Each structure stands twice: as C-alpha cells, then as structure tokens.
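Deviations from the work plan: none for this task. Representative record:
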Amino acid sequence: MNRKLSTTNDDPSKKDQSTVHFFIDTIEVERLSALAFFEAGEDAFDGKRFFWQNREKNFTLVGLGHAYTIESNEDESRYETVEQQWKALIAVSNYKDYPQQPILFGSYTFDPKKAVSNEWSHFSHAYFALATHQLVIRNEKMYVNSHIVSREAITVEDIKRCNAERDELLHKAQVRGSKSYAKLHVTSMMEPYKEEYLQSITQVTDKIKEGVAEKVVIARSLALEFSAEVTASNVLAQVYAEQPESYLFALEKEQNLFFGASPERLVLVKDNKAYSSCIAGSIKRGATKEMDDQLGQSLLNDAKNLQEHQYVVEMISQSFKENCINYTVPTAPQLLRIRDIQHLYTPVEGDLNEGATILQMVANLHPTPALGGSPRGKAMDMIRDYEPMNRGLYAGPIGWMNAEGDGEFAVAIRSALLQQKKAFLYAGGGIVADSEAMSEYDETLVKFRPMLRALGGQLNDD
Ligand SMILES: C=C(O[C@H]1C=CC=C(C(=O)O)[C@@H]1O)C(=O)O
Ligand SMILES: [Mg+2]
C-alpha cells in the first residue's frame, strides 16, 4: 500500500529535489449519498471540498481535504504548469495497483489578463486539488480513495489516522443521509452596473457593425444578501435537487464557494477520443408544450441566434481539425432543452492526435466564442474594455482529469460565488451585429434563474 518512490528531476513542487511519498488506498462502499459525503466533511474539511457530477449522471466525484494542490497565477503557461505538476506527482504513485485512480479537480479563471479583484481575490488563475478523501460514483459503483502526499516518509501511524478519518466520514454520511434545508432568505438583490451593462451592449454592437469584431460575449452580475450565513452543503443540495439536466459543480476555497449547473461541455477526453459541444443561441421555455415547440422552432430559424452559434461551430471545428486525426460535426444545430432555457446545440467529436492531452484541448478551446467571441483576441480586448465586472471563475473551464489523462471540463456558466452572507451570480450573452440591449438583458434574466432559484431569490416572472 505504502510505496515510497524517489523522484529526482520531476519533483512536483520544484522546490527541492527530495523524495515525495504518495500513499493510496481504495475501498468500495455501498449506499452512500454523494451530498451526504460532502456534508460529512463540513467540520474537518471546510473550505477544502469539491463536487462534480456530469450531465449524464453516471459519474459523480466528491473531494474532501487536500492531499495536494496545484495553483498558478501565470497566463498562458497555467495549463502546462498543472499538466507537468500532475504528471510528476502521478509518476511517484502506484495508482495502477488500485481499482480507482487519483483524480485532480479544479478550475481556471476566465481571463488572467484581467486583474483579479473584488469578490475573486481568493482564487488563483489555476486552482486544482487532489482530495485527501475522494468519492467516485460511476455507473452505480462507489469507491472512496484516500491519498497522502508527503515529503516525509509516510508512517503506519499516518495511514491509521487517514483510514480512521475516512471511516468516520463514511459513518457520518451513512448515518445522517443528506439533510433537508429550509429555503434561504434573501434580504437584498442588486443589479450592479445595470446602466453600464446596457450601454456596453449598444457600444459593442456599434463596434461590431463597424467591423471591429464579429461577436463579443458581454456579461453582468447580480448581488444577493441573506439574513444569515449560507452553507455550501445547503446551496449544493438546492442545485442538486433543481438542475437535473446539467453538469453540477462546486469548488471551495476557504470561505468561498464557487458553484453552478452548466449545460455546456468544453471537452471530454476518453480513450483518446475528444468530445466538445457548441452551445450558443438561446430562447426561453414555453408555458405549454405547443408554446415550447414554437419557441424552439423559431430559435432554430432565427438568423441572429444562428449567427451567434455559427462562430462557435467554426472555432471548435478548427480546434478539432488541429488536434485530431479526424473529426465529425453535424451540418445543422439541434435544440438543447434544460429547465429554464433552450439553446442551439452542435456536438463535435474526434480522435485525438497522438500525444494530445485534455489540458492542451482545454487551453486550445478556451474561451470558445460562446463565452469570448470572434475573432478571439479582439473579442477578449473588448470584454476587458467594456464589461463592467470581473468574471473570475465564471465562464472558465472547470473539471477533472485522472492519472491516465482522461477527464472532462465544463464551461462554468449558470454559476455563482457564495461568500457567507453574500452571493454573486453571473450571466452573459453573445452580442452580434443585430443584438439589442433590452433583449440581451432579458436573456441574462433567464440565465440567472437556475442559480437564483437555488439561492432562494426570485425574479418577477418566476
Ligand atoms: C454566456 C452565457 O451563455 C452562453 C452559452 C450559451 C448561450 C449563450 C447565448 O445565447 O448568448 C451564451 O453564449 C451565460 O450563461 O452566462
Ligand atoms: Mg444569446
């Protein structure tokens, strides 16, 4: 179980060249709720937990505690830094001896060039962790891995302590199940920089008409306050109950919780195949099936939305062309319907070039024109100039990768940052030549809904 391997050149932290010890233990468990496991870590691992569930609901990952973290505040090299440090760490593990691999989970900010400020000051531009206790639920099977990474030799005592901690967590989670929570009480809801946002849409639309760019995504935020401190387990339970068709994610850093329910896959890598999704172009859901179908049909035929969508298809196709031996992309979008909204959707897939990695794909794809714009450089400059806020982790890549390089990243939209008695929600939309400020504003209201509902807030027409 406890294999000690010495690294020479590939010490993960690069701080010195001493030995790194990596202990793994895997057990199979039964009857465990992922939410209850997350909650069980509330005292011992507060501020060091994460949660992930894919759209298909056949893969759930929960992390409690940090066996190892990788952070970077660099710009372009932040992808390579995470990749190198993870590979160096994995190289000293004996993960192949266990039925479950160690998994690295984390996220990247949207734009390292925009100085992090305000509510985002706690997060690095790359923030990843290998959990001390990692729950994986895959196709009904459940495993808990425990990990210790240490510069010191790992003793029998260390292992006993780790196993006892794990057994205590499992006991708590199994005995308590997941709690039910009272609805949260919002005391104030504010739309910061609303006027600036509306003006920026008009200005950006004008610039696009002048030919400065083709498409630019502009976002804004909502700020909520609560009568009492809101816990991570509480909001996660709300999101879990209310957003069944999305990726669910939550990432803690100290007293901050970034969480959301996104429909959008950035990239999935499995057995050397890559899968991405173009999701851009939106319309609300209808009150009846007939109205819903009518709205869906009008979205499929709407020139402005088709244009928003097409830039994303072109860019993602180009990325697959560069990184894959072959790739397929349907000729026309279909509808993707989730609880509050319908989108235009085109799936893209391909066989990866030899040696291409998931983080290379993430680096190459992010930001797609669904969150940045087209052309990318010009759009990013305009977002920096016109957007009256800092996106932080909103709209960035969030996800996981295992020891062998398989993994999945979603685009962290329909998301919010919770800071005890405060929360910030984020939403944006693709601006093209015929965008109108008020209808873009309305589109953000629809996109705020999932997080607003999870946080107990309400919009007039909800
Ligand atoms: C920017 C967001 O959505 C993007 C993803 C899908 C549809 C979009 C749209 O129709 O504008 C946006 O590009 C958001 O949810 O904050
Ligand atoms: Mg739109």
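The first strand starts at residue 2 and ends at 5.
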